[in-house]
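Key result, reporting period 2: structure in, sequence out.
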């Protein structure tokens, strides 16, 4: 009998006992298993805690000890594979460097002291209370009107995109209950531009498709190093290639992704809008766009107000620019309206004011010649790949584009991503098999941490975090944040249910469901990661809780950031290892006495030692089960958060102050159990899912839910306080008591290639968003080859291979709804979250209705497209000499940062011997020609310098980075990975910090930093 690895693991591993039935002879399995350490081990479902491919794992436990961690062969999206990081997960639990006791560093001390967990938690709670009480602002006067703001700016809480969904939810809830506004997670620094880019275009800020579906693409265009940074998911690209798909890799460097591609397109960092703008122009001029899709599903036919002007008219600016405020007045960025208040349309797309004609004129300047001059891509190569990619359009063909940080980390981050989204819209590549936008995330739970609102600007499920001036009352807030059409008209139900989940009986109709308890932000330009790190530097932010993140290494302008952390009064680090941030007071070259920061280190538990869910990059939530107890004092992050909340409630117990009610009234009963007070995570999940706060009648007055019952769907949420829901988009993940759909592990069956029985994909277990667009206006599949869902006239409903992302019984010819949950949506409005139901080529993004190219703030050239060199509304942090910018005369080389397969983010892997030994140390890639000019040999130590800092690394001289010809001039580019820091298991794991080189700049919408396109100087290092 021959057995595949899948069969072997399935039959041989779990219990070691024979599998019954089926007449299978298990003798060879048992014989082989006998020689394995997993024999007689019990298998627990796990999820890889490194990147957001979310490889499912099996954690093998014997005698309460993890003996092995393997890929789960049944997982439909990863098929049992793990990359080097996933394969080393074992060493996150079993590792001599792991800290299992609480450590305390007194102000000015040069050593850690071991302290009891209870003492530590009590001290932390007291510090939190003291800082809160000292810096709390209860109300402000706006004009002569007092507004309750319940805001505490004196401390910051950094959650993490490696924490579970439930943990991020608990942080979002407790921190807002305390009044914190400085609340962030690592998604801010890696993928924050994704949400407004995808959101403004399609309606939701999430990857549109499913990794498994990539295999059905006809052309795939990765714009990141997919094969090395998200290795296991790259199998779907290779499967597509086996089926005949073409691969176009767009990246400054030649990588292993390029090696698999039909075309490698080297591009100068920071110029992606010119490349995608060039493709949009090409698709329009050659008529390769998908005309019927564009007319049916996008806002191309809508007529824009005649006073709207674009950079074509105004030499680089849109109408409404205010140079003094560095912002746009968007009053001209609007549609012409008909008598019903709906935008006027021209389905012929010929009206000069229609979006399509604006688009055509706007990108007319983005010629192949311009692409060559700005991006450094030869005209011939550009035209070749334009022809290949734009062939992925029409009824029979689709193409997929992926991206990661190269597009995000830019002062044009949102618009770089939006430009590729718009290309996908005009080619008809959204909502269809083999089409879509793949957002590749480097942390396991970037999607979930974002969904659950550990970001300063939003609450769980994406309602905006209120601002004091426009949103003083619940009525103001709902009026200004609820659109007149599209599914977001249900916003009041989501917000009121969230307030009920947080403040329960204290949230009543009479007090606007405790809306005043929510902290109100002073302004939009505040509180992001970069803002509050600068606040620490200036000693305005005094306390900091840092969980699962390492800002000493991952912050932009990291040298300044480390001093900022040293300037704090107190710091709490919750982590597995002594991170560079925890060891901030003993950074090489720093005198410990010089920092008075009091540091509390709380040992944490990796995913294998706790219950919870992680949402991978394709919105798939997978539950992992606690396989073993954590050693010593180590426990889950959830236990820390719940414990802290309980202690704060106790400390405030006697308070009669109004400002303390949000803490005292917070619903906070998660039934902590055992000596480590581990909360019940299914209770948290149930709260996120939603439940009835009382008996709930349906529209006919019959009992729909009994008090306490979980909601089956977010469609049943209400704005009258009868329902509570912590995160509406996860509605349905826990539809019945004890039924956790994130825990499902059913293999793909029959024709269900999207594997709906594995985990739970929000919303409503849909695997491909906007899938109404897979059928034409009449509801028929565009073609047999690319069918996904379609209208079944006999059954009067949408049917097919996915959960329809559309009202299930709304016919294709249904008129636009005048009222109800789908107000403004008609039978052909596939983008139901957008106000007009259309994919938005024209949208009100802060820095432009269409993406326009501006050079990075440090660039080797002036902007060749207009007189406006840099994004005119981008954020430049005013911190004097700490943020000096370089010019090409002194800093002639373009620098880009990137990451490696074997290392993870800011350094978790540096504590893992199996991974650390795979790399020789920190290095910079430079091209052979540049190395020759500078007299640098492979392996030499070199200094890389920007006006902010200099670092020493080894030179990796390579053919993989070629010089670019930019506007006729040769420009060299340097590539540097950024994983290193001063903490690490072995010499090769320690090195200078790349992010020291990065400036304090931000995209205007999200304040994500510009770390992919800088200027630097390079020289051979003097020993
Ligand atoms: S790091 Fe990513 S690709 Fe590698 S095993 Fe983990 S989830 Fe899979």
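The corresponding designed sequence is given below.
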């Amino acid at each position: 009998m021959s057995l595949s690895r899948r069969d072997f693991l399935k039959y041989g591993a779990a219990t070691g006992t024979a599998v019954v039935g089926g007449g299978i002879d298990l003798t060879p399995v048992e014989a082989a298993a006998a020689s394995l350490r997993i024999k007689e081990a019990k298998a627990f479902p796990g999820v890889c805690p490194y990147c957001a491919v979310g490889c499912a794992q099996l954690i093998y436990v014997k005698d309460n000890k993890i003996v092995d961690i393997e890929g789960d062969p049944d997982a439909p999206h990863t098929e049992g594979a793990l990359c080097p990081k996933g394969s080393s997960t074992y060493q996150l639990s079993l590792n001599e460097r792991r800290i299992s006791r609480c450590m305390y560093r007194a102000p000015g001390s040069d050593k850690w002291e071991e302290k009891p967990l209870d003492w530590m938690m009590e001290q932390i709670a007291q510090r939190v209370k003291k800082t809160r009480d000292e810096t709390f602002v209860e109300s402000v006067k706006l004009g002569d009107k007092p507004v309750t703001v319940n805001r505490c700016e004196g401390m910051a809480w950094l959650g993490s995109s490696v924490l579970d969904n439930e943990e991020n939810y608990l942080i979002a809830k407790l921190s807002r209950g305390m009044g914190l506004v400085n609340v962030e997670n690592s998604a801010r620094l890696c993928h924050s531009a994704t949400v407004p880019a995808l959101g403004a275009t399609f309606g939701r800020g999430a990857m549109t498709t499913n990794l498994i579906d990539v295999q059905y693409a006809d052309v795939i265009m990765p714009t990141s190093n997919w094969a090395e940074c998200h290795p296991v998911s790259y199998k779907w690209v290779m499967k597509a290639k086996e089926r005949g798909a073409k691969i176009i890799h767009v990246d400054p460097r030649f990588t292993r992704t390029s090696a698999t591609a039909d075309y490698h397109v080297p591009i100068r960092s920071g110029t992606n809008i010119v490349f995608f703008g060039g493709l949009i122009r090409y698709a329009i001029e050659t008529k390769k766009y998908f005309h019927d899709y564009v007319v049916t599903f996008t806002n191309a036919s809508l007529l824009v107000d005649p006073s709207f002007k674009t950079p074509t008219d105004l030499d680089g600016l849109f109408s409404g620019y205010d140079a003094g405020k560095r912002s746009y007045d968007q009053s001209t960025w609007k549609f012409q309206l008909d008598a019903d208040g709906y935008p006027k349309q021209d389905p012929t797309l010929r009206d000069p004011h229609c979006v399509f004609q604006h688009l055509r004129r706007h990108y007319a300047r983005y010629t192949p010649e311009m692409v060559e001059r700005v991006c450094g891509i030869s005209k011939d190569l550009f035209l070749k790949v334009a022809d290949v990619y734009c062939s992925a359009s029409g009824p029979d063909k689709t193409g997929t584009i992926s991206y990661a940080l190269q597009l995000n980390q830019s002062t044009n981050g949102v618009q770089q991503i939006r430009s590729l989204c718009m290309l996908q819209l005009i080619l008809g590549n959204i909502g269809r098999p083999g089409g879509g936008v793949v957002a590749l995330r480097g942390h396991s739970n970037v999607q979930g941490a974002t969904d659950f609102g550990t970001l300063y600007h939003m609450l769980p499920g994406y309602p905006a975090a209120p601002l004091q001036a426009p949103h003083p009352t619940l009525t103001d807030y709902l009026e200004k944040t609820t659109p007149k059409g599209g599914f977001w008209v249900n916003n009041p139900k989501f917000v009121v249910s969230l307030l009920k989940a947080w403040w329960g009986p204290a949230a009543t109709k009479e007090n606007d469901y405790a809306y005043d308890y929510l902290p109100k932000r002073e302004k939009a330009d505040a509180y992001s990661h970069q803002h509050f790190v600068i606040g620490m530097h200036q000693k305005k932010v005094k306390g900091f809780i840092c969980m699962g993140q390492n800002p000493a290494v991952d912050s932009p302008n990291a040298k300044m950031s480390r001093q900022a952390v040293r300037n704090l009064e107190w710091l709490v680090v919750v982590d597995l290892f002594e991170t560079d941030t925890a060891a901030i007071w003993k950074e090489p070259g720093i005198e410990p006495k010089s920092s008075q920061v009091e540091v509390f280190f709380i040992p944490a538990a990796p995913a294998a030692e706790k219950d919870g869910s992680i949402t991978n990059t394709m919105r798939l939530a997978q539950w992992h089960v606690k396989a073993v107890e954590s050693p010593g004092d180590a426990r889950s992050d959830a236990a820390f958060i719940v414990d802290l909340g309980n202690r704060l409630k106790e400390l405030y117990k006697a308070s009669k102050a109004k400002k303390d009610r949000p803490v005292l009234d917070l619903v906070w009963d998660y039934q902590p159990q055992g000596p480590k007070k581990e909360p019940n995570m299914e209770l948290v999940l149930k709260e996120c899912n939603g439940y009835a706060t009382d008996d709930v009648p349906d529209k006919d007055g019959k009992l729909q839910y009994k008090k306490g019952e979980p909601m089956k769907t977010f469609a049943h949420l209400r704005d009258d306080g009868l329902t509570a829901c912590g995160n509406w988009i996860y509605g349905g993940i826990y539809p019945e008591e004890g039924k956790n759909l994130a825990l499902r592990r059913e293999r793909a069956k029959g024709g269900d290639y999207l594997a709906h029985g594995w985990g739970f994909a929000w919303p409503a277990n849909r695997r491909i968003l906007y899938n109404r667009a897979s059928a034409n206006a009449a509801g028929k599949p565009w073609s047999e080859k690319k069918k996904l869902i379609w209208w079944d006239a006999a059954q009067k409903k949408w049917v097919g291979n996915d959960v329809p992302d559309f009202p299930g019984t709304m016919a294709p010819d249904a008129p636009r709804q005048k009222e109800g949950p789908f107000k403004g949506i008609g039978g052909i409005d596939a983008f139901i979250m957008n106000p007009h139901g259309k994919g938005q080529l024209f949208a009100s993004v802060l820095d432009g209705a269409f993406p326009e190219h501006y050079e990075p703030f440090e660039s080797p050239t002036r902007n060749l497209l207009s007189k406006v060199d840099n994004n005119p509304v981008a954020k430049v942090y005013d911190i004097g000499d700490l943020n000096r910018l370089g010019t090409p005369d002194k800093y002639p080389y373009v620098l880009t940062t990137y990451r490696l397969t074997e290392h993870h983010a800011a350094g978790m892997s540096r504590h893992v011997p199996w991974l650390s030994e795979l790399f020789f140390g920190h290095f910079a890639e430079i091209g052979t020609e540049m190395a020759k000019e500078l007299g640098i040999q492979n392996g030499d130590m070199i200094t890389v310098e920007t006006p902010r800092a200099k670092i020493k690394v080894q030179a990796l001289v390579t053919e993989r980075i070629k010089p670019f010809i930019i506007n006729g001039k040769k420009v060299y580019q340097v590539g540097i990975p950024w994983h290193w820091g001063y903490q690490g298991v072995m010499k090769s794991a320690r090195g200078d910090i790349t992010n020291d080189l990065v400036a304090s700049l931000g995209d205007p919408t999200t304040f994500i930093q510009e770390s992919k396109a800088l200027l630097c100087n390079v020289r051979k290092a003097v020993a």
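The pocket of iron/sulfur cluster is lined by residues 48, 50-51, 53-55, 82-83, 85-86, 230-232 (CB under 6 Å). The radius of gyration is 27 Å. This case is discussed further under Risks and Mitigation.
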